């Protein structure tokens, strides 16, 4: 693209906008590279907001931009390669950002697109606690459109990058796209701004880059080394996690409260990636640097940032984010994304640099005492969220292999050697009597002053372990919080209930597998031709089993068996306790080997579930055998039936039954073979003969048994008609015409009906 040397900025922007419509993607990117290289910052600053929006989409979600969340290398390799090269940490876009950053340009960002708590705070003229917003709020003049933030080019770029994960709604075809293969996810793993290069891994990453050689735009020599790291971490945390204030979280405890924000599975996966990189970065300090005594005045800003990044920026917002997800996420397998994000945060030792030197054996390794301070300073992340997971697990169907896997994952992580002891030690420190002196408590509650960098506002390290644990708990839950010990009697009771459910889920999975095999084996051959009654009541297909059978039962059994073993290790449960619970909650089977009905009592209107019965149904432990118990002719039209034909056949059979009711009754009352033959075809088992759930309803329906009647509804089934067409087709292959074929079918059915009549009568006599 050739531009005149003295081109006006407005014409430059207009030309690029026109090219974005008329030129292919590759050519547009080539032109942008040349523009960024050739034009000065004064002219480039006019196109910067438009370019950022054209890449990441508009903040209202109307414009999708380059659609980075759906762009994949295996689907669109050319576009993917060009986009990733353009947005690379050392690519043209970041060169443009730093070019404008050096000139100290500012760009307006609407406050209305910020996360809820931040937006509400600024609109109420209260400055948020994050230094990210300090000295940036621009109040509008009288008659203005709204509040804005005056952001640097680097901040403006990151705001759009981070918010596009939330504001851009996935396209209809994006449901089948794997998140980890998308350009956006790869860019988060390659962002130039999170300068985590110094924690020593090899590939270039948006979360690992440029600490050691980034140029300074901050006059403060003490913080020039970390300004990009600090900015990017604050932006990602504010945009991705700060959707719940402490006050809002407390109001949201009601399960009926309306959710102001609900993250997507993709959102959670990206946050997990951020946490993994943060752990690797924060814990890349040497062992001697981790001890509180090592934090001297000689510590570099980078070392201080590593020490304080997680507790200062991430901990509280992540805790509220996880609490909301645990309380409001649907009770299905998609919760696995939230679960893995939580477990990644709980295990920083998995991402520490020395992990590479550890052996790769499958045996559980002991958690080093080095991590005791992290466990203690994140006590609620372990204990309260574990209780939250127990609450979810007790309400899910553990027969599902996916749900069983989640229980197994949590139990395995918490059962790592020495971790439970660290958690218990943290709880003991919190429950110690309050011995701190008054000025210490005041320091805990004092709000830090706002500065351009967090380092000056971050308090020095506290060496009192008990005080640190109390500060953590009170900071996240408030001074009046009521702490429930993870290894106390209340949580132990929940664990025992979960252990009982695990045992029952194993039995239920085996029972369902047996029922599936029995129903498949018992299906008669003639049912495929439509001559036998169809099961109109369906079968038990819930429980979210991938497929009923030995494989799913084996997976479920393995996951639950190991989960039970880990829970017994953590909470020191004995086999006698498990056996007593199983017996007390009624997991025995009846003499036929089938599950009993849910616990209930008989009332005036039928069976009434007891609280135990409701608990059994919710957890999939027992169920009613639901079947249609009304007039078979009046049941709803099924998906395998032709609606218009069923209605027509119903009118025809109703007319015949009305016209010949007396004659059919007389035939069915005969005691000879003809009477038996007519009863087999013209009578239906009365409602009184069915195994109704309620003895009260059984008595009421006994009088509603229908007399002899003809039913032609089976002719409205697709399967019946298809079977007849198939029979005529096969007959035509043997040169048998339609009329002879019809006679043969009628003759064959008469022989079948005679045999069934004789067998039915013999069965009745044998029963008598």
UniProtKB/TrEMBL annotation:
This is Sphingomyelin phosphodiesterase 4. Keywords: Membrane, Transmembrane, Transmembrane helix. The keyword Transmembrane applies. The chain crosses the membrane at residues 721-754. One of its GO terms (cellular component) is membrane. GO terms for molecular function: sphingomyelin phosphodiesterase D activity. It is found in: Membrane. One of its GO terms (biological process) is ceramide biosynthetic process. The gene is SMPD4.
């Amino acid at each position: 693209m050739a531009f005149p040397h003295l081109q006006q900025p407005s014409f430059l922007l207009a030309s690029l906008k026109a090219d974005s419509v008329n030129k292919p993607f590759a050519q547009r990117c080539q032109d942008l590279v040349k523009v960024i290289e050739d034009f000065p910052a004064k002219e480039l600053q006019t196109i910067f907001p438009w370019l950022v929006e054209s890449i990441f989409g508009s903040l209202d979600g109307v414009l999708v931009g380059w659609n980075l969340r759906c762009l994949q290398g295996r689907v669109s390799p050319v576009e993917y390669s060009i986009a990733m090269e353009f947005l690379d940490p050392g690519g043209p876009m970041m060169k443009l950002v730093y070019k404008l950053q050096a000139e100290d340009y500012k760009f307006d960002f609407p406050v209305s697109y910020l996360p809820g708590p931040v937006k509400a705070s600024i609109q109420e003229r209260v400055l948020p606690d994050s230094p990210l917003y300090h000295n940036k709020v621009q109040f509008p003049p009288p008659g203005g459109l709204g509040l804005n933030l005056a952001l640097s080019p680097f901040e403006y770029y990151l705001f759009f990058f981070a918010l596009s994960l939330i504001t851009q709604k996935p396209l209809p075809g994006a449901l089948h796209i794997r998140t980890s293969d998308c350009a956006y996810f790869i860019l988060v793993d390659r962002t130039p701004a999170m300068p985590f290069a110094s924690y020593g891994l090899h590939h270039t990453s948006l979360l690992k880059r440029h600490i050691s050689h980034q140029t300074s735009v901050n006059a403060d020599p003490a913080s020039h080394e970390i300004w990009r790291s600090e900015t990017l971490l604050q932006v990602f945390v504010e945009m991705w996690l700060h959707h719940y204030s402490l006050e809002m979280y407390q109001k949201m405890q009601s399960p009926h409260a309306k959710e102001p924000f609900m993250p997507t599975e993709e959102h959670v996966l990206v946050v997990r990636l951020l946490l993994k990189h943060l752990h690797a970065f924060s814990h890349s300090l040497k062992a001697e640097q981790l001890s509180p005594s090592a934090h001297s005045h000689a510590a570099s800003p980078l070392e201080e940032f590593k020490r304080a990044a997680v507790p200062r920026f991430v901990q509280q917002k992540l805790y509220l984010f996880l609490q909301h997800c645990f309380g409001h996420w649907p009770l299905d397998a998609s919760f696995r994304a939230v679960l893995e994000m939580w477990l990644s945060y709980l295990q920083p030792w998995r991402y520490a640099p020395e992990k590479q030197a550890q052996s790769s054996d499958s045996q559980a390794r002991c958690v080093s005492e080095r991590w005791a301070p992290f466990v203690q300073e994140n006590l609620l992340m372990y204990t309260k969220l574990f209780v939250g997971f127990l609450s979810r697990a007790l309400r899910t169907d553990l027969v599902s292999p996916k749900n069983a896997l989640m229980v197994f994952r949590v139990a395995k992580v918490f059962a790592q050697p020495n971790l439970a002891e660290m958690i218990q030690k943290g709880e003991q420190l919190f429950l110690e009597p309050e011995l701190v002196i008054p000025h210490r408590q005041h320091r805990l509650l004092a709000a830090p002053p706002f500065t351009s960098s967090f380092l000056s506002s971050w308090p020095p390290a506290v060496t009192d372990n008990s005080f640190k644990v109390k500060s953590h708990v009170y900071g996240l839950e408030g001074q009046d919080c009521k702490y429930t010990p993870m290894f106390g009697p209340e949580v132990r009771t929940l664990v025992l209930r979960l252990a009982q459910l695990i045992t029952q889920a194993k039995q239920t999975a085996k029972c369902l597998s047996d029922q599936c095999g029995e129903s498949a084996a018992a299906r008669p051959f003639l049912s495929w031709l439509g001559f036998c009654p169809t099961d109109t009541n369906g079968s038990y297909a819930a429980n979210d089993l991938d497929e009923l059978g030995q494989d799913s039962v084996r997976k479920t059994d393995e996951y639950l068996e190991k989960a039970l073993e880990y829970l017994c290790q953590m909470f020191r449960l004995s086999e006698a306790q498990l056996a007593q619970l199983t017996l007390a909650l009624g997991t025995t089977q009846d003499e036929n080997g089938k599950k009993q009905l849910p616990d209930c009592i008989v009332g005036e209107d039928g069976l009434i579930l007891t609280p135990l019965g409701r608990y059994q149904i919710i957890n999939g432990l027992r169920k009613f055998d639901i079947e249609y118990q009304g007039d078979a002719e009046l049941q709803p039209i099924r998906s395998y039936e032709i609606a218009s034909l069923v209605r027509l056949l119903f009118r025809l059979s109703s007319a015949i039954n009305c016209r010949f009711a007396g004659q059919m009754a007389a035939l069915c009352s005969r005691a000879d073979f003809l009477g038996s033959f007519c009863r087999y075809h013209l009578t239906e088992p009365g409602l009184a003969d069915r195994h109704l759930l309620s003895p009260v309803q059984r008595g009421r329906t006994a009088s509603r048994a229908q007399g002899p009647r003809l039913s032609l509804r089976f002719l409205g089934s697709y399967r019946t008609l298809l079977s007849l067409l198939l029979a005529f087709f096969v007959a035509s292959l043997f040169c048998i015409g339609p009329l002879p074929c019809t006679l043969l079918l009628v003759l064959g059915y008469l022989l079948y009906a005679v045999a069934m009549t004789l067998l039915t009568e013999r069965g009745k006599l044998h029963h008598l």
